[in-house]
Write a structure and sequence with these properties.
- It is a single chain.
- The protein is α/β, with parallel strands linked by helices and 279 residues long.
- It has 2 domains: 74 residues, lambda repressor-like DNA-binding domains (434 Repressor (Amino-terminal Domain)); 186 residues, Endonuclease, Chain A, CATH 3.30.870.
- The chain has a 6-stranded mixed β-sheet, sandwiched between helices.
- α4 packs antiparallel against α5.
- 32% of the residues are buried.
């Protein structure tokens, strides 16, 4: 085949996925156009995934499994996709995200950076690339993080979206990330979020001092059956908790934090003032 790009499966999870996809397609005697028809996508997209130019998405993996007849099997491409995500995300986080996609209420507290669900693509890329420069993750894992975040955000745009409560430490809007243009667009995104009918945005100002109830990022999900799960993370790991005896006190602490935080109107006013400091 002319101009065939060969991948080293050991170079990255994305390369391993692309090489396996090509091998399975060729084992069945399909060219890219025939496989694209079976998987209900374009041959250009098949080529991009096989050569590692695009990361696979969850919907794509499910189409591939249907085409190959590998759904819910040990050879499932969806299973490989989840394994790839686990390699670039904190332990416990993929499990949390599975619950997040069906939650009726989402409560978030974040310190230092804008919560992922509200990040612009440029802001998210700056954070991912910073991790690459520090040697914490590979460029491929950075791509996976950003695409995974986009999928999380898209999952909230459903017919009955969840109520999303976001409380941010003041450091989230004061800490410059990616330069003035990136930060200004991110702050504008926060103001837009505050205007949504299913949102509540609050800043926990520095002035509340010791009355801030959390010192680490916290996520609380109310599921359709009204049960509540929590997720908290440190620098090295995350932990999902479903036990009421430990989750409900965290929900109480979140409500106490909201009582100390600025109102949404005052939060938007603070963000607007911060934006005035960017060109």
């Amino acid at each position: 085949m002319v101009n065939r790009k060969e991948l080293n499966p050991e170079s990255s999870p994305r390369a391993a996925y692309g090489a396996r996809l090509r091998r399975w397609r060729e084992d069945r005697g399909w060219n890219q156009e025939e496989f694209a028809a079976a998987a209900a996508c374009s041959s250009q997209h098949i080529s991009a995934v096989e050569t590692g130019r695009k990361p696979p998405t969850l919907p794509f993996c499910r189409k591939v499994d249907l085409a190959f007849g590998t759904a819910n099997s040990v050879d499932s491409f969806e299973r490989e996709w989840h394994e790839m995500r686990r390699g670039s995300l904190l332990e416990g986080f993929p499990e949390y995200v599975a619950h997040e996609g069906r939650a009726s209420e989402i409560r978030v507290f974040e310190i230092g950076i804008v919560p992922g669900l509200l990040q612009t693509p440029d802001y998210a890329w700056v954070l991912a690339n910073s991790a690459v420069k520090r040697g914490a993750i590979t460029p491929e894992q950075a791509d996976e993080r950003v695409s995974f975040l986009a999928e999380r955000q898209a999952a909230l745009l459903r017919a009955q979206p969840p109520m999303l409560f976001v409380t941010m430490d003041e450091s989230c809007i004061r800490r410059p990330v990616g330069g003035a243009a990136v930060m200004d667009a991110q702050l504008a995104r926060l103001v837009e979020f505050a205007e949504l009918p299913n949102s509540l945005l609050q800043v926990a100002p520095y002035g509340i001092g010791e009355r801030r109830t959390f010192d680490l990022p916290v996520y609380l999900l109310t599921l359709p059956d009204r049960s509540v799960v929590s997720y908290a993370e440190s620098q090295a790991q995350g932990h999902l908790d479903r036990v009421s005896a430990s989750v409900l006190p965290m929900l109480t602490a979140y409500h106490q934090l909201q009582a100390e935080a600025l109102s949404q109107a005052d939060t938007v006013a603070m963000i607007t003032e911060v934006r005035k400091g960017t060109p």
